[in-house]
Amino acid sequence: MKLLYFDLRGRAEMTRLALHAGGVPFEDVRFSRSEWPEIKPTTPRGATPVLTLDDGTAVTESVAILRYAGKLGTPRLYPEDPVAALRVDEMVDIVGSTTGILAKSFGLPSEEQLAMRTKMLSEDGELTKVLKYVDEAAKANSSGFLVGPELTIADCALRPFVYWLTAGILDGIPKDCLDQYKGIAKVMQTVSEVPAIKRYEAEQYPA
């Protein structure tokens, strides 16, 4: 099995985390932005990530790939119980909605972009509402994970989003924008101690 994506966390990182946590062997194929024009025509839909199964089937759509990854390996990161799976899906989709919110500001002139992002992070801002919901859910879950008693793909979806939002690479989004969200911080800490994830991140992203 092969996972194809840029050499950054981005939309593939949640699947990488899930596969590593589940002990699922896979080929982590990364490429630079300069290589993308050559690689793009070889993908099914001109986009990544792409997961190629052992029989050669190529699958697109990052969340679909994540859900599949969560059903493989041990431990299983996607619940078999329908209600538990529903709660996990809810959080994965809520976390994913933040990308759409922020995308509204992409490509705008600098001043307009900063104003929009400041509004998103205001007390009643669109992004703040999502962050508060996720944070309260995390606080209410005594396990330290986002949903349920153990690691799920919801935690894998949250982690790279937090890194992206706090990296200081988005103008108008300060690095400390999540400092007030103690529930999210608790999940980040709990996930960082999962042995397989801790080992992967130490090797892939050494300090």
Q: Any overview of this molecule?
A:
- The chain has 207 residues and is of the alpha+beta class.
- It has helices at residues 13-21, 36-39, 62-70, 82-103, 110-120, 126-140, 153-165, 182-192, 195-204, and strands at 2-6, 27-31, 50-52, 58-59.
- Strands 2-1-3-4 form a 4-stranded mixed β-sheet.
- A hairpin with a 5-residue loop joins strand 3 (50-52) and strand 4 (58-59).
- Helix 1 packs across helix 7, helix 4 (82-103) packs antiparallel against helix 6 (126-140) and helix 6 crosses helix 8 (182-192).
- It starts with a strand and ends with a helix.
- The model has no long low-confidence stretch (mean pLDDT 97).
Number of helices: 9
Our Rg estimate from Cα atoms comes to 17 Å
How far from one another are the termini?
29 Å
Largest sheet: 4 strands, mixed
Overall shape: it is globular
Percent helix range: 40-55%
Spatial strand order of the main sheet: 2-1-3-4
Task: Name the assembly state.
Answer: single chain
SSE arrangement, N to C: EHEHEEHHHHHHH
Proportion of beta-strand residues? 5-15%
Tell me the total number of β-strands.
Answer: 4
**Which stretches are low in confidence, meaning pLDDT under 50 for 5 or more residues running?**
none
